[in-house]
Design brief:
With about 400 residues, the chain is α/β, with parallel strands linked by helices. About 35% of the residues lie in helices and about 25% in strands. The strands form five sheets. Strands 1, 2, 3, 4, 5, 18, 19 and 20 form an eight-stranded mixed sheet that branches. The chain has a five-stranded parallel sheet with strand order 11-12-13-14-15. Strands 6-7-8 form a three-stranded parallel sheet, sandwiched between helices. A hairpin with a 6-residue loop joins strand 1 and strand 2. The longest helix has 24 residues. The chain is globular and about 60 Å long. The two termini are about 20 Å apart.
Length: about 400
């Protein structure tokens, strides 16, 4: 198949190839050419072609309000809930997701079903269950609970043995529970190092829910290289994160979506807390942007959920642009930089010959304004068209 009359967006260089055709063969991009070859043709009508989107902070099985979570829920019910959210994400153009905690390891089960050809969902890079300290931020939502370095090491190895691709930990509190604070680390330095050591043995990495600078610095010392939220990040820590080349998922939508939270059934204290934290959160992310920290797109909410006439993933992209990222870097955060974080940059994240044909088409140039991503009309995953809303010829 040839996708003709396309404008291919290079999310790394910021260049656009105008009036080209893209060959899709055996699920991959075979060629990008001025002249299409023989075979079936599908005209994109001059639309801009970008890589399939990648969301790196995903919870498909989450329950709202969080207090309604049943840690003893039948795994079949958990997977069915996750399946619906995964389908929504795929139709929204999110062709790859990194899960960072799922009840009953629903991400691993859903990924297995996808490999068997039973379900159409995004490519899933799973963490299984996150690991939390007793009474910590992840306690009560189905996390593995550990206390002490040896216990964290054993818990991490257990998740990796179950088929996880990375390990998720909670190193501070957040905004989900009453009485939580940002400034008190919930893991010791030794526990962080033990978790990183276990991940390193299996050639993978640790991602941390991390609200504030002290815990982030401890985690950097331990070798953690992926951080979520950064609600209260100082300038020095932002500079260190940039210098060490780690990744930050700002999840700005967590403190910018109070109407969505109320619609979804969040508890009122959580909505009020998110509103209270928003100014400092935004200031922290602006400091990270100014320091040059590598940003990636993740939402903490199901990535295909509707919000403000778009998906949560695209909404987050706009919030990242509003925090100071250029449109190109906001788009790279959901494509090429996210692929680098996952260690999948040779397969996905850019529109290049030989890579997997994960493709999204939009009407306007997203390098001029990421709001163009609100108008996705075509989605392809691994060479298979999963959505085509273009007007009939």
């Amino acid at each position: 198949m040839w996708l003709t009359d396309a404008r291919v967006v290079d999310v790394v260089t910021g260049e656009i190839q105008d009036g080209v055709s893209v060959e899709v063969s055996d699920g991959r991009i075979g060629a990008i050419s001025r002249q299409p070859g023989a075979g079936e043709r599908m005209s994109l009508g001059g639309r801009y072609l970008v890589p399939g989107l990648i969301s790196v902070h995903t919870h498909l099985s989450v329950v709202y309000p969080f207090s309604a979570t049943d840690e003893n829920e039948n795994p079949g019910l958990t997977v069915l809930r996750a399946y619906g959210r995964a389908q929504d994400a795929l139709r929204a153009g999110v062709t790859t997701i990194r899960c960072v905690h799922e009840l009953n390891r629903a991400d691993l089960l859903l990924a297995e079903a996808a490999r068997a050809g039973w379900v159409d969902v995004p490519r899933i890079v799973g963490a299984g269950r996150a690991i939390s300290t007793p009474g910590g931020h992840g306690d009560g939502i189905g996390s593995a609970i550990a206390d002490g370095p040896d216990a964290f090491r054993e818990a991490a190895l257990a998740e990796l043995d179950a088929g996880c691709s990375h390990i998720k930990v909670f190193i501070t509190g957040g905004i989900a529970n009453l009485g939580e604070t940002f400034d008190h680390p919930e893991m010791s330095r030794a526990e962080m190092r033990a978790t990183v050591d276990a991940a390193t043995e299996r050639d993978t990495y640790v991602v941390a829910h991390a609200a504030s600078s002290q815990a982030i610095n401890w985690a950097l010392d331990a070798g953690i290289r992926s951080f979520e939220h950064a609600y209260d990040l100082d300038e020095d820590t932002a500079g260190r994160m940039a210098a060490e080349g780690v990744f930050l998922t700002p999840t700005l939508c967590v403190t910018s979506s109070q109407e969505w939270m109320r619609w979804r059934g969040f508890e009122e204290f959580q909505i009020e807390k998110s509103l209270e934290v928003h100014p400092s959160h935004l200031a922290s992310i602006r400091r990270a942007v100014a320091a040059g920290v590598t940003m990636v797109n993740g939402t903490d909410y199901p990535p295909g959920d509707p919000i403000d006439d778009t998906s949560v993933t695209v909404h987050e992209m706009g919030l990242m642009e509003g925090a100071g990222l250029s449109p190109q870097l906001a788009l790279a955060g959901a494509t090429s930089n996210a692929a680098r974080l996952l260690g999948m940059e040779e397969e996905i994240g850019t529109v290049e010959e030989g890579k997997v044909a994960d493709l999204v088409a939009v009407e306007e140039n997203p390098l001029a304004d990421v709001a163009a991503m609100r108008d996705i009309s075509f989605v392809m995953q691994s060479g298979r068209v999963v959505r085509d809303d273009r007007p009939a010829a």
